[in-house]
Specification:
With about 120 residues, this protein is an alpha+beta fold. The protein is built from two helices and six strands. A six-stranded mixed sheet has the order 2-1-6-5-4-3. It starts with a helix and ends with a strand.
């Protein structure tokens, strides 16, 4: 269990750093074949993406956006599960931000599930 948590933490931290650094190419070796992604929008359930290529394309689009700034509030991992609490800013104005969380699952050193939620 400890090794699994260490692997999951490394993968999840690398995933988050790709967004902070605007380096979508860093996501290439982090996403698993059977990945499932549930986006934060549209309300109420968010869009669902299935498969490595669909998830990778979606996440790369966000990571490559230079005006989006992700700041982590906390990264927590236990076993194959992890949580990233974050803030997303799209301008310098205080009102132009949102807080959210990604619930992640890592198997075999790859992200296989990412469920996104935001404060409404």
């Amino acid at each position: 269990m400890i090794i699994e948590s260490e692997t999951a933490r490394k993968v999840i931290e690398r995933f988050h750093r790709a967004f902070q650094a605007h380096r979508p190419e860093d996501l290439d070796d982090l996403i698993g074949e059977g990945c499932v992604l549930e986006n934060t929008t549209p309300a109420p359930d968010g869009a669902r993406y299935e498969g490595r290529e669909a998830c990778l394309a979606f996440w790369k689009g966000i990571a490559s956006s230079p005006n989006l700034v992700f700041e982590d509030e906390e990264i927590w991992v236990s076993g194959d599960r992890g949580i990233i609490r974050w803030q997303l800013r799209w301008s310098e104005r205080e009102a132009d931000r949102i807080r959210g969380v990604n619930i992640m699952r890592v198997l075999g050193g790859k992200i296989v599930e990412g469920l996104g939620y935001v404060k409404g």
